């Protein structure tokens, strides 16, 4: 049962008292100087722009070009290749940049670009910068580099617990995060999708790796993405890092410290000779002077930066999530969805039931209990499985052990495997790729950015990837048992069907623990 109002009030009061006892209520600076800056418009003569133009047929210059980046090695290669060839600007916006091998490689490439005279703007959500202020202030000490933190917590403690406690008086600031993931080079080519910057997002994690997806974009849609970046960069919610974290007194010493911290590992980033669609790497194609792009009409779905200041009771109309739902409502034959964090809620289940009732096939791919990195989110989603199956929704759950055994979706070695891609395919004609999950957090709390593309070619490519995860040995197919009360998880061992009613990865003890936690955490906060 939820906490009674009186108990919740006492708990909140105790938490505030603890904050005061620890360090007092922290606060952000009241007056911050933000120098506005914008994407360069005069980049048509850059090397990247010339390659993008050469890759675009005369009949397609009014449309945008896209290439799916389905694997981690190719996706990081794309960012590195663009950073190394940029001559005017790099704009990078991320929820997380990890202090690890991939994170260091990424920051080194940005530093090296800045050393060539490229303007580098790095915008990070502040929550996961905890304990890493020195990394980013040292990075900001380089010429041509600016770092801003979005919606920062008032406390700069190196302990996330202390930071949260010291910010409880501004709970909305803790809860509402910038979840966008975007990389733009010379306002000409961009990478947008679901990946943060860290080892596990690019198949380099030792303990866990994510199945994720990005797209490379060129043409008119990139200018829309740059406009979205500018809106966040110049927002009152973005703070220059020097306004809230202490900068080094000696910039030269800070640059030296940064170099020591991110010193190169041996060797270049390596990629497979061909990706899942038989294409060479973005770096190789850039060297050849032509990119393999599919051209199509497209538009950017992006939340306004001030979404973080909205009350959760306000309507979701006008948000990226609302636009995505409207696209799904318009489906006539099929909706395929992949989302690692999928909590439809009662309204979502009703929408799915209505969609299936109109003759539309609806298929969902999400994580199984043995693959999720957010067990409480999975527990909340599980409440709706029976209703969705009864409504005729097809449900597939990526099984961590199944993928590791089949090795069908990538090379995971002995690591755990988790879905992280956020993809929608509608009527094999429209695709939606970006940072947005299908849950209340993406709808009302976090800011998101996605790209909507009208392209049967891309729709078929993405459908093959979603169904590859949902139909082969990497995922369970869920179905109602003959009694109508139990769920069965169906997998395959060669030609043999394997059926179990015991949820993979869930135990009675884990379910009991999650059930208890669920009474203290609202579904809207997951």
Uncertain spans? 1-23, 407-414
Q: So how many helices?
A: 18
Trace the largest sheet across and list its strands. Answer: 11-18-17-16-12-13-14-19-20-21
Class computed from helices, strands and strand pairing: alpha+beta
Binned strand content: 15-25%
Number of strands: 21
Strand count, sense and closure of the main sheet?
Answer: 10 strands, mixed
Report the span from N to C terminus.
17 Å
Shape: globular
Helical amount: 25-40%
Mean pLDDT: 89
Cα Rg: 23 Å
Describe the structure.
The protein has 526 residues and is α+β, with helices and mostly antiparallel strands. 35% of the residues lie in helices and 21% in strands. The chain has 18 helices and 21 strands. The protein has helices spanning 5-22, 47-54, 72-85, 101-115, 133-140, 160-165, 171-175, 220-233, 251-261, 282-288, 320-329, 345-357, 375-382, 385-391, 400-406, 440-445, 456-471, 508-518, and strands at residues 64-69, 89-94, 119-125, 145-150, 182-185, 189-193, 208-211, 214-218, 238-240, 294-296, 298-302, 334-338, 361-367, 394-398, 416-419, 423-426, 430-434, 449-454, 475-480, 487-493, 496-500. Helix 3 packs parallel to helix 4 and helix 5 (133-140) packs across helix 9. It starts with a helix and ends in an 8-residue tail after the last helix. The relative contact order is 0.13. Mean pLDDT is 89; it is low at 1-23 and 407-414.
């Amino acid at each position: 049962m939820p906490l009674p109002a009186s108990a919740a009030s006492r708990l909140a009061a105790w938490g505030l008292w603890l904050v005061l006892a620890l360090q007092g209520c922290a606060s952000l600076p009241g007056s911050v100087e933000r120098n506005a800056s914008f994407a360069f418009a005069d980049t048509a003569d850059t090397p990247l722009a010339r390659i993008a133009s050469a890759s675009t047929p005369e009949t397609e210059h009014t449309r945008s070009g896209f290439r799916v980046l389905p694997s981690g090695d190719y996706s990081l290669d794309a960012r590195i290749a663009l950073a190394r060839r940029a001559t005017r600007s790099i704009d990078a916006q991320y929820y997380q940049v990890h202090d690890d091998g991939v994170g260091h490689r990424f920051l080194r490439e940005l530093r090296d670009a800045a050393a060539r005279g490229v303007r580098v703007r790095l915008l990070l959500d502040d929550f996961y910068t905890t304990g890493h202020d020195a990394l980013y202030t040292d990075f900001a000490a380089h010429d041509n580099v600016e770092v801003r933190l979005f919606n920062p917590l008032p406390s700069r403690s190196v302990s996330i617990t202390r930071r949260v406690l010291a910010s409880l008086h501004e709970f909305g600031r803790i809860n509402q995060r910038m979840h966008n993931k975007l990389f733009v080079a010379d306002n000409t080519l961009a990478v947008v999708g679901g990946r943060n910057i860290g080892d596990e997002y690019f198949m380099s994690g030792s303990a866990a790796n994510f199945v994720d997806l990005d797209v490379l974009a060129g043409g008119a849609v990139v200018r829309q993405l740059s406009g979205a970046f500018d809106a966040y960069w110049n927002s009152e919610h973005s703070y220059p890092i020097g306004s809230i974290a202490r900068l080094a007194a000696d910039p030269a010493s800070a640059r030296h410290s940064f170099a020591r911290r991110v010193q190169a590992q041996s060797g270049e980033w390596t990629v497979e000779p061909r990706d899942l669609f038989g294409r060479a790497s973005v770096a190789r194609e850039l060297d050849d002077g032509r990119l393999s792009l599919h051209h199509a009409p497209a538009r950017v779905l992006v939340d306004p930066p001030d979404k973080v200041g909205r009350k959760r009771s306000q309507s979701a109309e006008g948000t990226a999530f609302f636009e995505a739902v409207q696209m799904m409502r318009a489906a006539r034959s099929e909706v395929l969805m992949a989302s690692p964090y999928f909590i439809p809620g009662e309204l979502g289940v009703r929408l799915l039931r209505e969609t299936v009732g109109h003759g539309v096939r609806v298929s969902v791919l999400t994580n199984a209990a043995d693959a999720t990195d957010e067990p409480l989110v999975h527990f909340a989603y599980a409440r709706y499985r029976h209703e969705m199956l009864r409504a005729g929704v097809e449900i597939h759950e990526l099984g961590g052990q199944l993928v590791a055994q089949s090795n069908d979706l990538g090379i995971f070695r002995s690591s755990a495997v988790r879905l992280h891609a956020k993809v929608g395919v509608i009527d094999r004609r429209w695709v939606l790729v970006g940072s947005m999950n299908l849950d209340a957090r993406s709808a009302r709390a976090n800011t998101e950015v996605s790209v909507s593309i009208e392209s049967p070619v891309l729709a078929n490519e993405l459908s093959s990837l979603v169904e590859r995860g949902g139909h082969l040995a990497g995922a369970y197919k869920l179905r109602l048992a003959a009694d109508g009360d139990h769920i069965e998880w169906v997998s395959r061992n060669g030609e043999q069907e394997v059926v179990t009613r015991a949820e993979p990865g869930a135990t009675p003890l884990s379910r009991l623990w999650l059930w208890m936690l669920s009474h203290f955490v609202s579904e809207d906060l997951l």
